Structures are given as structure tokens and as C-alpha cells.
Protein: Chorismate dehydratase
Amino acid sequence: MLKIGWIDFLNTLPFNFEIAGIKPEFEYKLYKGVPVKLNKLLRNKEIDIAIASSAEYIENFQDYLILPNLSISATNKVHSVAIFSNKQLSDIKEVYLSKASKTSRYLTKIIFDIFLKKEISYKELENYQDIEKKSVLLIGDNAIFFSDRFKYVYDLSEIWYKNTGLPFVFALWILNKEIFYKKERQLRQFYNILMESKEKILKNLPNFVKNFVKTEKFSREFATEYIKNLDYNLTEKHIQSLKLFSKYLQDVKIIKKEPKFNLLNF
Ligand SMILES: C=C(O[C@@H]1C=C(C(=O)O)C=C[C@H]1O)C(=O)O
Structure:
């Protein structure tokens, strides 16, 4: 049985092997939730593998391995990770951070500390009441959903791209090192299934969106354009970006040790 962590956001659609009609030959169970929940399940070894926060890998890299060629990244705008505000950036003094995120919370700190050199007080975003009166970091479907309440959108990967020229890697397929030896066969098959799903769904995206995306939250046109704009690859350039992100995380004292990026050689 392979225990798989699944971020329940629109942006994981291209990995959805079930809707792609690909059936694994092994038994599996999906554990759905926001990134922080999956990071925790993975760290506690309650699941084997997950699409989880890239920052979770960076912080605990000794325990993990990465599936190659796969990520959720964005070159320039991501559209679903941003600081939303009705204030101009220069007037923002406090930011309420989404509790669902790890990577984007850390990126927010790097943006203010290193790129903008601006002191900010950080608070937890406990609920969505009167959200338009605050400056908030939102991720995933909520970011898309609440965006029209705000005059200004400070897109985090756009800011990263302007400062570094690199794509920003939000999520990776991370697995617990020790399960590789126990479940190598399933993992290899799962990797092939993810690669196949990604290809199949992205090739025929409007059709998959039409059949599988619920339209209460966003229009089909938006969903298609949003996914099309994301980058699901993991190349040398993405690794370079992860290394730079890690260096900045050391500079702002969030991590102590420089991580190694251990990709499975599939
Ligand atoms: C692109 C996104 O990136 C997400 C952000 C994450 C984080 O901040 O920890 C983790 C996984 C990603 O799915 C998004 O939420 O829209």
C-alpha cells in the first residue's frame, strides 16, 4: 500500500492520474489536505510520498528524496500565491500569513527582508472575516477566490523572478528516504504514472478542465489559463532556484544547514 499525500488545490490537476484514467497496479490511499498538513504527515512518516512544500524538503532534506522532473513552479506570475492588499506596498506594515503554507510564508520573509529591505510585523491569518481590511498572504484556491476583494496583488513568484531571473519552485514530490528501499517497485510505477498523467492532462487541458473542475469557484477559462501558465517541470534551472532560495533562508536565519538536493535517478 502506497500512502500518497495530495494537495487539494486546482494546481495539482495535471498529476491527477485518476481522472487521466491511469490505474496503478498497486494499492494506494490518497491523503488530501493543504500543504502544511501534508508536510506534517510526511515528517511523521504517516505517509510515504506527497506533493508538498519545497521548504519542507529544504528544512529536512536528510530524511527525504525528490522525484525527478516534477514540481509546481512558476516563471514570473503564479496567480495563486500573493500578498493581497488594499494598500500600496510602501504603506504595508503588517502581513497576515496563510496557515496552509510553508514555502510561501518563507518567501514572503525573503521578499521583505532581502529584496525590499522593509521591516514587517507578521501575524497568523485565523479566518477570512473582513479580509479586505488586511494585507494577507494567500495560497492556492483561496488566493484565486478572494483576489477580487483587493486593489493590489503582489504576486510572489513575479517578485522572485524580477529579482533572480529564475522560476520559483513551490512544491515538489517528496518521499521518505527509507521507504524507497521498501517500496521501490511501487514508487517507480507511481513516478511513471505521474509523468504520464502530466503529459496527457496538459495536452488536452480544456477537456479535463471541462469534465473535472467544479465551476462554483472559478470559470473554466480561468482554470485552463491558470494551469497552462504554471510550470510542472524540474530542471537544472529549478534546482538552481531552490539553491538560491535555500541560501536566502540561511541569510534570514530560517535554516542553518545548506541542503543537498537528492533526486531519484529514475
Ligand atoms: C503554487 C502554489 O504553491 C503551493 C504553495 C505551497 C507553500 O506555500 O508551502 C505548497 C505547495 C504548493 O501547492 C499555490 O498554492 O498556489
